[in-house]
């Protein structure tokens, strides 16, 4: 098994200072996967790292990123995430993640809605909790529930999905998303949703 590797990525642009490039070094120490990275993305210097391993029979992992802030001259922000997952029984699986978004804001009236709409950012506030669980009802049917809670403004959402394995290479899913929050909080902007999904593999 290969335990150490180095990845180099370069995306050329006409002007070198507009190019994207990064390096990531990964290794394994005492059963933990460890990695560090550094580079330039969209004219922003970034550096960070991640780890993954086990504590007893539970899996743990974390990531951190330090990036130049394009909106503040000489400014930086930090993002990090810490998670744990556990297979409680052969049918029940659970996952927990805490996410700190240093690029976000505590004031919901200062949310960067334009950045969210344009896809430049994914979250608006600073602190989030994510929970997810999957339970296998039968050999062919499973139920998954997931939730994200915004600690800063009290909004969030709950998503549920029921999946049925119709054949060896196809499955059908029925899902819903319920968003909640006071006016102008992050998930107040999200609609309630219901969907039917078909997955097939070739």
Tell me what you see in this structure:
The protein is mostly beta strands and about 200 residues long. The chain contains one helix and twelve strands, in the order E-E-E-E-E-E-E-H-E-E-E-E-E. The protein has one helix spanning about 115-120, and strands spanning about 5-10, 20-30, 30-40, 45-55, 60-70, 75-85, 90-100, 125-135, 140-150, 155-165, 170-180, 195-200. Strands 1-2-3-4-5-6-7-8-9-10-11-12 form a twelve-stranded antiparallel sheet, with no helix packed on it. The mean pLDDT is about 90.
Short key terms for the protein model shown above:
mainly beta, 1 helix
Q: Low-confidence segments, ≥5 residues, pLDDT <50?
A: none
Determine the number of helices (DSSP H or I, runs of at least 4 residues).
1
> Which word captures the global form?
globular
Name the helicity range: under 10%
Gyration radius, to the nearest Å?
Answer: 20 Å
SS strand fraction: over 45%
Give the H and E element order: EEEEEEEHEEEEE
Tell me the distance between the termini.
29 Å
Q: Major sheet: order of its strands? A: 1-2-3-4-5-6-7-8-9-10-11-12
Q: Which structural class should the secondary elements be placed in?
A: mainly beta
Q: Let me know the largest β-sheet.
A: 12 strands, antiparallel
| Average of the residue pLDDT scores | 91
Total strands: 12
